Amino acid sequence: MIESERDPQTGGKRIVLKPNASLTRVQARLLLCGFALVLVSIGSAFAFLGCWFVLPFAGAEWLVLAYCFSLAFRQSAVREVITVTDADVMLERGIRGPDETYRFRRAWLGVSLDGPAAAGHPSRLCLKRHGRKIEIGRFLVESEREALYRELKEELTNG
User: Fold this and answer.
1) What backbone torsions phi and psi does residue 42 show, to the nearest 5 degrees?
2) Which is nearest to 136 in space by CA: 104, 158, 159?
3) Gap between the Cα atoms of 41 and 55, Å rounded
4) Between 12 and which of 63, 72, 85, 125 could a Cys-Cys bridge form, CB atoms 3.0 to 4.6 Å apart?
5) Rounded CA gap, 15 and 87, in Å?
6) What is the DSSP string of 51-94?
């Protein structure tokens, strides 16, 4: 998902990139509760039939599922913020705050959209300067990546 806004005072542009998170935390909790109910029901039925050892495996299965949900929510919290001013372009990446920060001189920065390495793979959108490339928007779908490429290309050439 791409959100862009222009600062009316400085004239700079701020572009926020974030993954599309279609499942909310409340929905995930409800889904996990539903899975727990199903697993406890199946495990209890087997325990009633004398196969009590199914219950610990059902619990372990639920814990693995909950862990996978937490990993997915952590990945959906990633943000990339691109700030374009008259002189600089700044890229900040992180989950709760900027873990990585890159600052480039606007005049020396380019943007490239490299085709996929193999069929079925996504293209790569990169900021480039003096042969060094930094990939941005890995989590974007192809149409969003192309739209961001056009927007950055226009923003960098109109400066």
Assistant:
1) -65, -45
2) 104
3) 10
4) 85
5) 16
6) -TTHHHHHHHHHHHHHHHHHHHHHHHT-EEEEEE-SSEEEEEEE
Per-residue pLDDT of 37-60, as tens digits, reads 999 999 999 999 999 899 999 999
Average pLDDT over residues 65-90: 91
H helix runs in the chain, sequence order = 25-48, 54-76, 142-157
Tokens for 157? Answer: 């050439």
DSSP summary character for residue 38:
H
State how far the Cα of 133 lies from the Cα of 119, in Å rounded to an integer. 22
Amino acid at 112: S
Specify whether the CB–CB gap between 47 and 59 falls below 8 A: no
The whole-number pLDDT of residue 67 equals 97
**How confident is the model at residue 159, as a pLDDT?**
60
First and final C-alpha spacing in the chain = 25
With cut-offs at 50, 70 and 90, classify the pLDDT of residue 157: confident
